[in-house]
Give the backbone structure.
Amino acid sequence: MAGVVGGTMPGSPASVLPAGTGPAPTVDSTPSLVALSAMAFPHAALRPAIVSRAQWRADETKRDPRAHYANGVTAIFIHHTDTTNAYDCADVPHILRNLYTGQTRDRDWGDIGYNFLVDRCGNIYEGRAGGVDRPVVGSHTLGFNQGTAGIAAIGTFERGAKVPAPMEHAIAAIAAWKLGLRDVDPRSKVRLTSTNDKSRYLKGTSATFNAISAHRDGFATDCPGEALLARLPAIRDLAARLQHRGLREPVRVQLSQALPSLDGSS
């Protein structure tokens, strides 16, 4: 399969390592959508390249036919897939299909639980169906799926594991883009309300989270592992830079997607 630069964006830091191999990602370059400027979206980040479900050959007959939507994404939960780190990035579509089967057949989640997945080469993959630009409700953090997005790092990142630099950048890039659509600073705190008593908080309880949080912050789990957990401060900072926060002069940006088209369903 041809090499791609997934999870990188024009103007990204020069120190970011190049991505490896994987399916060629899709990029929406519709002229009418790229005319939006920083005056309307002062902290918008460019949409990174995303490998679509069709490209990783998701069997759409396995999932629930109807996606559910929130009113926007105001927080991100970071996960790891708890699978091997010793994979070729060209083999990631096969890994995703296995995860998809397990989460639909064995866990009965109706679809893959994560909104996005990122491989060690920095390629970003569309997870749950419904539109990458829309606030799709996933099945990634019990009690806190509404109004959040789940990003899963493909691999296992317990203490002692190394989180690849391209993976970190890709996580920051997708988080910066999704949070930027609601002008959320990746370094900020947000209030979320639990929808399930099996989370860390009783149903109806509001709690404060980092805008980019770990799975374990909302649910009793070790996910995303100590190694990835330790990298979240750096990922938040990078995501903020990708939103052009902290610069003295506003930076005009171009968006490859419009704001989510909400239909009010949940």
Q: What stands out?
A: The two ends are 38 Å apart (CA to CA).
